[in-house]
Amino acid sequence: MYLYLPVALTSINILIPIGLGLAVGLLSGLFGVGGGFLMTPLLIMCGIPSTVAAATDSNQIVAASTSGTYAHWKVGNVDFKMGLYLLAGGFLGGLLGVQGIKILRAMGNADFVIKITYVLMLGIVGVYMFFESLSSMRGKKSKSDAADKESTVGAFLKSLPLQTHFEKSGVTHSVLVPVTLGCLVGILAAIMGVGGGFLMVPIMFYLLRMPMHVIVGTSLFQILFTCIEVTFLQAYTNHTVDFTLAVLLLLGSTVGAQVGAVFGRKLKGEQLKILLAAIVLLVTVKIIFDLTLPPSLLLSEPGGH
Amino acid sequence: MRYSMSANRIITIFKLMALCLVPLFIDNAYAELTANANHDQIKIDFFYHGSTIALGGVSDPKTDLIIKVSSQEGHQVMREKGKVGGFLWMNVGELKLEHVPAMYFIHSTKKIEDIITPEDMNKYVLGYSALERHVEMNPISNGEEKTKWFGEFVKFKEASKLYDTSSGNIEFTNKDGKQNYYILRQWPFQAPPGNYTVTVYAVKDKKITEIATKNILVEQVGLVKSLATMARSNGALYGIISILAALAAGFGVGIIFRKSGGAH
Questions:
Q1: Which residues on B lie below 8 Å from A75 (Cβ)?
Q2: CA nearest to A207, candidates A258, A135, A157, A259
């Protein structure tokens, strides 16, 4: 059955967005990522204009992350205090990143910087997480062993002022740490045009030393607010949110997020990490192919990547 | 003498009557070109997935036909992909096009180049080569570059099902001494709402002898129209409703799963 999308100005088989929503919502509930880095290109492949795909994806992530946050909150896996500090940094980083993009566009090499940042960030995060998780699983090291391992970075973080205890995560950090890290992810997310969940999750694990299950819930909580802001701005300034498409996507993604949260609790932290690393690496390989293989069409509509 | 004058009058009357009958015979020989469509309005509702449109009319049997279906001309901006550093394909700039239709279909009885002069092709913008000359593109440094990027533009539009050309697909039937032409074509759902024109050109001895037109209006109706209008004219409210609906859906599904024990 086909449905016409009033803002995208195209018609789509309703099973496609519901199926995509279900698959990406599952990842969202499992790993605490919004899934924008997967969903937006998939929607463009289905004929949705790139500007509408990106904006509408933000709208459906609001639903998926609400559903996921609710599921994780009910079992006590959301650190609201940490989430709010990360969020504050993220908003600041978003503003800085948008200015950065303007400068890059004026210099005429924005697309090159965006693509290279994308590949490097995904590649580094994916490779590091994959091999670290693999060695942890082989060495039978538990998540808490890894978290307890002190490092130079850890010692430096502990020396910073404004230390506070994050009860839910069981860690103590300076307030400056989550705000600065949130800001860095916000800058990169704004430059790359994505929510940044796939960067935030490893940062929470490796630098903030949070337990993996609390990371997923807290990341979804933060993504929820980021996507509310993006949805409103896209609807208000660009008029590119397609409500009909968002409803079809969220029909799948809200259910997928719940199923993902259930599966997530049955997997160990290391298993979750290695699965996320594998997905991030697959996306990286896909982007490298897109960058190096000649495209079938040399022209595209403005917007998106 | 009187008889002779009466005979002359009768002959003159007959001549006048014969003159009056001439157009009737001409009408049969050169039927006036008409253009019709089975729809002059295409309504877009939630279940719209494109339409099928039958174009037809009456034409002179001794003429060839060219049928052009196009939207109003406008401005379009595209992003150009190119190689960076010798091996990376990415967006390298923008291509601005002026006087370009969003949709452009050409159907003819024979290849356009074989039935009309290049002058008439350009004058009436018939065929991709004429459209290329008609469209303004920027930034373009020479004719070769224009041909390359216009070719890419046509590839993009054909992939979106918005540009198409064909020859030899117009069907003819003869009835009551008149020739009727007919072509059935898909109206793509990708065609945006707006005014479209079907123009039929009759061609004889490489010259366009007659032109007939028919207008088709494509418009959104009902809830589709309300949502599209709200998104355009009241973005803030539209955004808030979209967010609230997403929050409600997220919580709703969360509560359903919790009640059904899914989250445990």
A1: 263
A2: A157
How would you classify the pairing of strands A163-166 and A171-174? Answer: antiparallel
The pLDDT, as a whole number, for residue B26 is 37
Closest to B161 measured CA to CA, from B105, B108, B111, B217: B105
At A231, the amino acid letter reads T
Helix (H) or strand (E) holding B181: strand B178-187
Distance CA A207, CA B210 (A): 77
**Token pair for B2:** 């009187």
Residue-by-residue DSSP string for B9-66? HHHHHHHHHHHHHHHHHHHHHSPPP--EES-SEEEE-TT---EEEEEEEEE-TTSEEE
Q: Where are the domains of chain A?
A: 2-292
- Antiparallel, parallel or unpaired: β A10-13 and A163-166: unpaired
Q: How far apart (Å, rounded) are the C-alpha atoms in residues A102 and A169?
A: 37
**Cβ contact A67–B250 (<8 Å):** yes
CA distance B29 to B31: 6
Which of A299, A300, A301, A305 is best to mutate for the B interface (most B CBs within 10 A)? A299
Interface contacts A/B by beta carbons within 8 Å:
189
Taking only residues 260 to 299 of chain A, the set having a beta carbon closer than 8 angstroms to any beta carbon of chain B reads: 261-262, 290-295, 297-299
A230 touches chain B (CB under 8 A): no
ipTM over 0.95: no
A234 and B CB contact within 8 Å: yes
Both structure tokens of B113? 């180049």
Please name the member of A4, A66, A301 whose beta carbon is closest to the beta carbon of B246.
A66
Per-residue pLDDT of chain A (305 residues; tens, 9 = 90+): 899 999 999 999 999 999 999 998 888 878 877 777 788 888 888 888 878 888 888 888 888 888 888 888 888 888 999 899 988 988 888 778 777 777 776 776 667 777 787 788 888 888 888 888 888 777 655 544 545 555 677 777 778 788 888 888 888 888 888 898 888 888 877 776 666 777 788 888 888 888 888 888 888 888 888 888 888 888 888 888 999 999 999 888 888 888 888 888 788 777 888 888 888 888 888 888 888 888 888 888 775 44
Q: What local confidence, expressed as pLDDT, does residue B20 receive?
A: 43
Residues 200-229 of A with CB under 8 A from B: 228
Total count of residues recorded for chain B: 264
Query: H-type helices in A3-159, by residue range?
Result: 15-31, 36-45, 50-74, 80-107, 110-138, 143-148, 152-158
Test B250 with A259 for CB contact under 8 angstroms.
no
CA of B47 to nearest chain A CA: how many angstroms apart? 5
Q: Does B44 touch chain A (CB under 8 A)?
A: yes
Is A278 in contact with A130 (CB distance < 8 Å)? yes
CB atoms within 10 A of CB A56: 34
Using alpha carbons, list the distances in angstroms from residue B176 to B26, B65, B173, B248.
15, 20, 10, 66
